[in-house]
Amino acid sequence: GRTAAVCQRGTPVRCGQAIRLTHLGTGRNLHSHRFTSPLSGNQEVSAFGEAGEGDYLDDWTVVCSGTYWVRDDEVRFQHTSTDVFLSVTGEQYGRPIHGQKEVHGMATSSQNNYWKVMEGIFMQPSEAFQMEQYHAEL
Asked: Where does the MIR domain start and stop, copy by copy (predicted)?
């Protein structure tokens, strides 16, 4: 969930919902602010906070088609405070990790800011959600 909100595990993510993305290994959130990124000159994106705790600059809106973010669909993430799109282009760092690409925020939507889940844990939707999907009025 977004900062200061509780998100129950397994709850589907709605298109247009604000979320935080937390790196499991470090416990830091994907964060952005109005600073220039070092390689591309776009907006800097970094890791921030401790154990998933951070601030309002860790909130990203899920931009997708339909009602929910679906497992195999491409999505965009738009920073809720600065409106940039989470992006990656061709700029690569030489150090500390040679070949690592710079992730940054871009002011406009483009092919560089589509994301698709490639790894992770898929959680079956709750029974209540499944019932909602197939409910029909008589």
From this structure: 10-65, 66-120
